[in-house]
Amino acid sequence: MDGRAAGAVNQQSRSPWGFAQLLEQIDMGILVLDLGRQQVDYCNAALFEVLGDDLLCQSYERLYALFVTPAEQSDLPARSSHQVLYQERLYGYTVYRADPRYCCLFVRDITEKQRLESIAQAINAMDNLGFVFSGIRHEIGNPLNSLKMALMALQKSTGNENRETLDEYIERALADVGRMEYLLKSLKAFSLYDRVELREMSLIEFMEKFIALVEPDFHAGGIRIRTAIPLDIRNVRIDERALHQALLNIFNNAAEALKGCRDPEIHITTQKRGELVWLKIRDNGCGIKPEQRNHLFQPFNTSKPQGNGLGLVITRKLLAMMNGDIAIESWPQRGTEVRVSLPLAEAAQKEPVAADSFPSITN
What we know:
By secondary structure, the protein is α+β, with helices and mostly antiparallel strands. The chain has 3 domains: 3-109, Beta-Lactamase; 114-192, Orthogonal Bundle (Helix Hairpins), CATH 1.10.287.130; 199-361, Histidine kinase-like ATPase, C-terminal domain (Heat Shock Protein 90, 2-Layer Sandwich). Helices cover 47% and strands 23% of the residues. The chain contains 11 helices and 13 strands. The strands form 3 sheets. The protein has a 6-stranded mixed sheet, with helices on one face. A 5-stranded antiparallel sheet has the order 2-1-5-4-3, sandwiched between helices. It has a two-stranded antiparallel ribbon with strand order 6-8. The model is unreliable at 1-15 and 347-363 (pLDDT under 50). It comes from Pelovirga terrestris.
């Protein structure tokens, strides 16, 4: 110990403030339970104020049942955070087990905090709902008005119009009906997977089946699909139907971006990071305009003439329900890379290994 450290210790020993006095000044309830002797070893004055029940604060059995027993049901680690409802108040608390015999808890009354957060979430939900309804009104309103005009024109028809004019009105009406049908199908897809059934599955097997399904249509459009996935990539925990829908949305976006490009190609690779596998889908298409990038995951935001802007919204929702995520990077006239993270079925036990060090599946 150097001179400065020794001086600090001596200064602390001369200070009128001890640890007990310091703990008494903290506005958070502090509780130490002696699990060996089954008694309250220490509690500060704030605990009585936080819990508002003197009998509870003095009873080891009741405190243990309220705070420790629920926590132990989840194999209590050295540190864990929980919530408990007591006498219509919600308490948040953290449990520390630095020693097998003692259990230290920090307790707060979070009832008001929870109430304010619930209000904020409700307001946010209503704002989002209003945004969605506004988009739906716009997406349905335009074709509905066009359809109405076409039908009114047919209604006022005198019968003297030529067949081409009548066919034009009919085709316009059918196209508008198709747009509304497409929107309703997209909205159905948004709510289709309200619940996912997660199970362990080989990512390689899933991708082989997925590519075999979509590859003929892409090849027919002149788009080549290349894959380079390590053969020993670990299993992931997914809902097969939900991931299929999410990737289908991503591939359809890539196909749109590749229209008119020379040597169109989609390249699929993977990278393991910690407890996640990142599935990367990169195309060499037209890329995304800078002004569009900040609105990629907003409903009804799209640059496609026939799109409705729900594809990426649905994709992010499906991935989130599988504890995954999506990130997009794009370069104008150079292409776009979509990165999808998926949770490994088991926590990784070794350092990530570069993908190019393994044999690969290559199409």
